[in-house]
TrEMBL record:
PROSITE patterns assigned to the protein according to its UniProt record, in alphabetical order: SSRP (PS01317)
Designated gene of the protein: smpB
Gene Ontology MF term list: RNA binding
A cellular component annotation (GO) from this entry: cytosol
A Pfam family this chain is assigned to: SmpB
Stated name of the protein: SsrA-binding protein
BP GO terms, sorted: trans-translation; trans-translation-dependent protein tagging
Compartments it resides in: Cytoplasm
Protein's job: Required for rescue of stalled ribosomes mediated by trans-translation. Binds to transfer-messenger RNA (tmRNA), required for stable association of tmRNA with ribosomes. tmRNA and SmpB together mimic tRNA shape, replacing the anticodon stem-loop with SmpB. tmRNA is encoded by the ssrA gene; the 2 termini fold to resemble tRNA(Ala) and it encodes a 'tag peptide', a short internal open reading frame. During trans-translation Ala-aminoacylated tmRNA acts like a tRNA, entering the A-site of stalled ribosomes, displacing the stalled mRNA.
NCBIfam families: PRK05422.1, smpB
Domain of life: Bacteria
Species, as recorded: Oceanipulchritudo coccoides
Similarity comment text for this entry: Belongs to the SmpB family.
């Protein structure tokens, strides 16, 4: 008799501010180096990546300002919630994105954190910041879409 596979609970954390504040040009999937208690904390869903950003220091991509809360059932000596975490990427990808950042006007931001085959992955994006008039334009489009949906709904 075969055993039933235990389905892993899927948790995903999205950066809700990413597409409001940035134009995302490219995306990549990166591995992330974590401690054991951090993984348990992420499984509980106590992660915030909205304030996070990625910087490439000496050819090593590092995630800064991502908050992974201390594991509730861990020991007293738990990790620092805001510590810098190393990302795992291919050297060719690192060099390509480093050149894009140095050319100016771009930054790397985390878009979402998720599980893939039992491993925690971070989707990062190469992005340009939106100006205030771009944000106003997006708000106008959203209002127009909402109004058209209302009129269609009331006429049916």
């Amino acid at each position: 008799m075969s055993r039933k596979k235990k389905q892993e609970r899927f948790k995903e954390v999205r950066n809700s501010r990413a597409h409001k504040d940035f134009f995302v040009d490219e995306t990549l999937e990166a591995g992330i180096v974590l401690d054991g208690n951090e993984v348990k904390s992420i499984r509980q869903g106590t992660v915030q990546i909205g304030e996070g950003f990625v910087r490439i220091d000496k050819g090593i991509p590092i995630l800064y300002h991502a908050h992974i809360a201390a594991y509730a059932f861990g020991s007293q000596a738990s990790h620092n919630p805001y510590r810098p975490r190393r990302l795992l990427l291919n050297k060719r990808e690192i060099r390509k994105w480093e050149q894009a950042i140095q050319s100016g006007g771009r930054t790397i931001i985390p878009l979402r954190m998720y599980f893939k085959k039992g491993l925690i992955k971070l989707e990062i994006g190469l992005a340009r910041t939106k100006k205030q008039y771009d944000k106003r334009e997006d708000m106008k489009k959203a209002v127009d879409i909402r109004e058209t949906q209302r009129t269609v709904k009331h006429h049916l």
